[in-house]
Each structure stands twice: as C-alpha cells, then as structure tokens.
Specification:
158 residues, alpha+beta, three-stranded antiparallel β-sheet, elongated, Ribosomal_bL12, Ribosomal protein, Ribosomal_bL12_C
Length: 158
C-alpha cells in the first residue's frame, strides 16, 4: 500500500488536509530526503542579485504609499496569502502590562486584624490593633471580618 492509498482510506478531513505525513510521502516518492539533515553553511561572500531584481527593487522603492498598498493587495491575491492582523507598537506595549499582571501570583492566605472596637460593645479584646486570625482563605477572612464588624469592631483584611 503506498502513501496515497493510506491517506485515501481516512475520513475526508484527512484526505483534504495538507498534513506533515502527506508532504513526507510526496517527498519520498519524489526522491527528496525526508529528514532535515545538517544545516547548510552560510554564504561567505555578499549576496549578488540579478539586474532584474535590482530593477524591481528600484521600481518598488519609488512607488507611493497608495501604490505600495495596491501592490501588497495584488500580491496577496495572486499568491493566495491570507490577511494577517498586524499589531502596532502601541498595541504591543498595551498588551505587556496585562501579561505582567497575569504573572503576579494571587494571594491565597489572609489575616484579619482588628483595627479598633467600640468600648460599649462586649468584645473580648484588651487592645487594638491586634491580629485576630492568620492563614485563612479569602472567604473565611471576610466571614470573620463581618462577624467582628457586626459586634462593633473595625477590621482590616491583609
């Protein structure tokens, strides 16, 4: 069974997909090496381009911005290249603080401190401020703070 027969047996999505296995099969049947192999050596002398390419570069460099936009559109259409959204430097900078905020670990334990209390209420504390409880979950800390506030105290959660 050859590579094409294997791909033809699968569901339609496999047959239509331009997957790695298909391209490897095509390379094998075309006699091309499948593995990457050793990287090619970098050229030692400067790259020489043809006069045709130099003429194209000169012509493109002399185009107006509207003509460059038209050229860009025409090349994308001819070469079937999809439009890719480009991020402006401002958008990149705006995205950076959001990423930095995601890296900050969220606090997992809290402590409740009684900052002050009403002397007329019966709270079994001699002085304030004092730490009432530490290493609590956020929900537990807010629950304890609500109870102390109801009893006449002023709490801080840290």
């Amino acid at each position: 069974m050859n590579c094409q027969e294997v791909h033809d047996e699968g569901p339609p999505a496999w047959r239509e997909a331009d997957c790695f296995e298909q391209s490897a099969c095509k390379q094998r049947t075309a006699g091309l090496p499948v593995s990457e192999g050793a990287p090619a050596a970098l050229p030692r002398e400067p790259r020489v381009v043809s006069s045709k390419i130099n003429a194209l570069v000169d012509e493109i460099a002399n185009l107006s911005l509207l003509e460059v936009s038209d050229l860009n559109w025409a090349l994308k259409k001819r070469l079937n290249i999809p439009d890719a959204p480009m991020m402006s430097p401002g958008m990149i900078m705006a995205a950076m603080p959001a990423a930095a905020a995601e890296d900050v670990p969220q606090k997992k334990t809290f402590k409740v401190t009684l900052a002050k209390f009403d002397d007329t209420k019966k709270i079994f504390v001699e002085t304030a401020p004092c730490t009432m409880k530490e290493d609590m979950s956020k929900a537990e800390a807010y629950e304890l703070a609500a109870l102390l506030t109801k009893a006449g105290g002023t709490c801080e959660i840290a």
